[in-house]
Specification:
single chain; globular; alpha+beta; Aminopeptidase; 13 strands; 2 domains; binds coenzyme A
Length: about 280
């Protein structure tokens, strides 16, 4: 018989995170090929694995961004170990790591009521859209490789669009393997940016941030032009940003699933009108 005390939660090492990414893939979440690298770099103390008699059975991430904000992800218990109390113990460990920060998550609708019981409230829905790459390259002269621009400009642009500074994350994220990171430079300054990365199945775009819908459209087409024609592409769009939904639909993308953005603590102030695509469902 396995004893309750045999369940131990420890901080993940870098290699453990590959296992968590595999479990995320098993859940159909289609992680990016290089996600583990970028994610781990953001907060090496923020990933937890639960082991039963030495065998990994569950995980959760609680990535902190400075002292005021954190984001939960990778809340998974292996199917054969569910409903035995391991998940809630992982959850409590993650929340205690967050301290008194405002905490965000993008949850599956099936878990929404549990998160409400745990003090979270719903902010909005994200719709996942699926489209296809067009392989046409980038046609607009305003589109430039983000990695070639000064990082300080990118960090300033990102600031009102994410609840906290995220330099360590962005430094890696804008160099995706098998994808592209593009900035839109108009009027001699950054007016939007987007990243497309290779995933287990096709590609995901995120973030897609832009000052206006036409700029977001140019970025989106440029990103989809950067990958092979016909390859599946996914984009998670905040439902409350109507122009963003219109844009995805105007490019013949179709909604395939949804998640719920929730917060514990006052919702952070971000400029949602400029958010055309969420960075990632695991790290916010
Ligand atoms: C969600 C998941 C991790 C829960 O793990 P689990 O080990 O099955 O959960 P537990 O056995 O610890 O749950 C014990 C109880 O706490 C509840 N609970 C679990 N997590 C909770 C949370 N975060 N807040 C409040 N209650 C929670 C459960 O509903 C259950 O309640 P019940 O006894 O009234 O039925 C697991 O079902 C899973 O891996 N699901 C697939 C992946 C997924 O969808 N993850 C969530 C992504 S947002």
């Amino acid at each position: 018989m396995t004893l309750e005390k045999d369940f131990v939660i420890r901080t993940m090492g870098r290699d453990d995170l590959e296992l968590a990414v595999d479990w995320a893939a098993d859940e159909g979440w289609n992680p990016g090929i290089k996600d583990a690298d970028c994610f781990y770099n953001s907060d090496p103390q923020g990933f937890f694995i639960g082991e039963l008699a030495g065998q990994p059975v569950g995980c959760i991430s609680a990535v902190t961004y400075g002292e005021a904000f954190g984001f939960l992800g990778f809340y998974i218990v292996k199917p054969e170990y569910r409903r035995q109390g391991y998940g809630i113990r992982l959850w409590k460990k993650a929340m205690s790591h967050m301290g008194d920060r405002v905490v965000g998550l993008d949850g599956v609708p099936a878990q929404q009521n549990n998160y409400i019981k745990s003090g979270f409230h719903t902010a909005y829905r994200n719709l996942r859209f699926e489209g296809v790459g067009n392989g046409c390259g980038r046609k607009s002269k305003e589109l430039v490789d983000l990695a070639a621009l000064p990082l300080t400009g990118l960090l300033s642009y990102d600031k009102p669009l994410f609840p906290a500074a995220r330099r360590a994350f962005l430094e890696k994220w804008i160099k995706p393997g098998g994808g592209a990171a593009l900035g839109y430079v108009g009027n001699a300054r950054l007016e939007g940016y987007g990243v497309i990365r290779a995933c287990r199945y096709g590609y995901k775009i995120g973030p897609l941030f832009a000052d206006t819908e036409p700029i977001a459209g140019t970025l989106l087409e440029g990103l989809m032009g950067n990958i092979e024609a016909g390859a599946p592409v996914f984009l998670d769009v905040p439902h409350i940003n109507a122009p963003a939904i219109n844009l995805a639909e105007s490019l013949a993308m179709r909604a395939v699933s949804e998640t719920v953005r929730m917060y514990c603590g006052g919702p952070p102030s971000v400029d949602l009108e400029r958010i055309y695509g969420v960075t990632s469902l695991e790290l916010g």
